[in-house]
Structure formats: C-alpha cells, structure tokens
Amino acid sequence: MTRDTNEQLRRFHGDRVWMDAMGRRDIYGKAKSNRNRLRNGLARDGKPTPVGSATQGSYAMRTMIQNDDGDYDVDDGVYFAKEDLVSPNGGVISALAARQMVCDALQDRRFSEKPEVRNNCVRIQYAKPNSYHVDVPIYRRNRTKHPYTGVITDKYELASADWKESDALNVTKWFKKRNEETSGDTSRDGDKGQFVRVVRLVKAFARSRPHWSGKIAGGFALSRLVSDHFVESVDRDDVALRNVLRAIQDRLAWKDWVAHPTLNENILPVGSAKAKFLRKKLGDKLPLLDVLDAPNCTHELAMKAWDKFFLSDWFTNQPDPDDEDELDSKTTRGPTIKVGGQGYA
C-alpha cells in the first residue's frame, strides 16, 4: 500500500505553495489602484470610459502560488463598449491604438518604470523588493440584442496583434465549475478543493527548477491538463497528485497539444516543445516517488522523495507522525518533560 503522506503534502501546500488571502490582498490592492489611475487618465485625455474591469487568470482562478523572487503578477482586464472605441474620423480604432490609449492613461511620474505596451496587454512593473507586475489586457464588448426575443448577448475581443475573440471571464467560470464538479471539499470563493490544490502543486513542480523557466508548459496549460485528467482521491492529495501527473505524462505521449477550454483554439499547438519538455521532466522526476509504494517505505525515505521531487528542503524537516503519537502517549501518562529549560505537562 502506498505510504500516506497526505498530511505532509497538505502542510507543504499551505506553507510553501498556496498564496493566502493576505498575500492576495496586497497584490489586488495594486490592481485596484491602477483601475482608478486608468479611469482618471482616460478622463484627463478625453478618452472613452470603461464599462468595467475584472481580474482574470491565476488570480481569479485562485491558482496563484508563492514565488521566492517576489515576482507576482495579476491580470486585470479593462472592458470598453465597441461603439466607444472610434477614431476622430469615426472609424474603428486598431487593437494597437487601444493598447496605446490605455498605456498613455496609466502613465504616472511616481512609477520608477513607465507602463509599456506589450503584445496582449499593457504592463505596469513595480520595483523590487515587491517586484509585482500588473498586466492590463484591453477588451471591447460587442453587445447585440435579438430582434424577436430581446435577449442581449455580449461577445468580447482582446486587443492583441489584431482584435481577436477572447473571454477570460468564461475561463474563470469554467475553472471554478470544474473545481465544484470534481472536488467534495470546495468553498464558495474557490480557494478550497482538492482539484484546485492539485493544480497549485502541479504549478509548483513546474516552477521548482529555475532553469525550466520558459521551457515548460505555463499555468493555463497545466490547469487544463489537470482538468482533463483529475480524479478525486478523498483525503489523499498525494495520491490524486501522482495519479494526475502519470495521466498527463501518458497523454502527452500521443497528444502533445492543449486545447483552450472555452474557445476553438489551442493553448499549446500541435508539436509543442513546452508540452514535450513537461512530459520529459515528468518522466525524469515521477520515478523519484516510486519509493512511496514500497512496503518498507519509512517516513524518512518518503520525505526525502518529496523533497527531491519539488527540489525542496521542507519535507525532511517534518516530524514522523508515529513518533509524535508515541510522544503524545508518554506526555499523557508520564511526568513533566523538560524542553528548553521549561516544563510542559
């Protein structure tokens, strides 16, 4: 029987992986201040008023994880009505012009680095030690009303190389629905659930070696892969994680692309080098955990295996639960134990 390391993996997730509410609050505060800056800047420049803003990506899906370098990011989309995004001569403005308009409105002399136009957003980079960056994707809303039913339908397009169909809000809905469908321990805000914990742990593995950066599948692709292959294992996050990673490794051997969950396009294309890199690294590192299946696997061997898998020093510092049970038994029946010169009954 596989050694039960669920308790240690859950603690590792809480200590080293999960971005808790306090950490999220600081990051969201920067996004919110930029919303105000953007609206004021657009008004100053005589530009259209947004119809709304919404966080998206890992922040909205609650899969943001800790980063030793402090380089956190939040995607905070801004939405405009399509009919408002017109040039002085009445023509529709280009995707690049929309990004430049937002970039101009966000300029502030207090920034050490000026906001800059990127391929799919405007980026605001904060200086170290809190080297956050806020990405502001720009969307236009195309609202139509059915002539007979009166039903209003909204479609969204992202200001990329050109205007392209995109709906980050639906991606967030898709992800939260998957968490609710697949996990028995979810919460309304989406923070809890074995599915979302496993996604975070998979992302932590993918980021565990700095030299993998830029070579391995990113967070969105990993989330979709976990969604495709996740099966809940009640009270055993360790089993659920290993099972889904094995399934992903097997799948990537014959299907090396990753489809978008809400659009008719791929997150990773056919023949993706990042998908192949992920499969190779799973092939290299998953066998490190085989010791967990050995009948003579000790706590020490199990903890060393998880540390090697995550390139961590956290697990080997965790006490053996069997030793803790023995200590609890002795303290219940025996005399006071001296710890650090103080008495504890």
Structure in a nutshell:
The chain is of the alpha+beta class. It has helices spanning 6-17, 21-44, 57-61, 95-106, 168-182, 194-206, 219-229, 237-252, 273-285, 299-310, 321-333; strands at residues 52-56, 73-81, 116-117, 122-125, 133-136, 138-145, 152-159, 163-165, 258-259, 266-268, 337-339, 342-344. Strand 9 and strand 10 form a beta hairpin.
The mean pLDDT is: 89
**Assigned CATH architecture of the largest domain:** Orthogonal Bundle
Helicity, as a percent range = 40-55%
For the record, give the distance between the C-alpha atoms at the N and C termini, rounded to a whole number.
36 Å
Spatial extent as radius of gyration = 24 Å
Overall number of domains: 2
What does the largest sheet look like? Answer: 8 strands, mixed
The secondary-structure class comes to alpha+beta
Topology pattern, helix = H, strand = E: HHEHEHEEEEEEHHHHEEHHHEE
- Strands, count: 12
- Per CATH, the class of the largest domain reads Mainly Alpha
**How much strand?**
15-25%
Q: Give the overall shape, derived from the CA principal axes.
A: elongated
What this model shows, in words?
This protein has 345 residues and is of the alpha+beta class. The protein has 2 domains: 6-16 and 171-322, Orthogonal Bundle (Poly(a)-polymerase, middle domain); 20-167, Beta Polymerase, domain 2, CATH 3.30.460. The chain is 42% helix and 16% strand. It is built from 11 helices and 12 strands. The protein has helices spanning 6-17, 21-44, 57-61, 95-106, 168-182, 194-206, 219-229, 237-252, 273-285, 299-310, 321-333; strands spanning 52-56, 73-81, 116-117, 122-125, 133-136, 138-145, 152-159, 163-165, 258-259, 266-268, 337-339, 342-344. Helix 6 (194-206) crosses helix 7, helix 6 (194-206) packs across helix 8 (237-252) and helix 8 crosses helix 9 (273-285). The two termini are 36 Å apart.
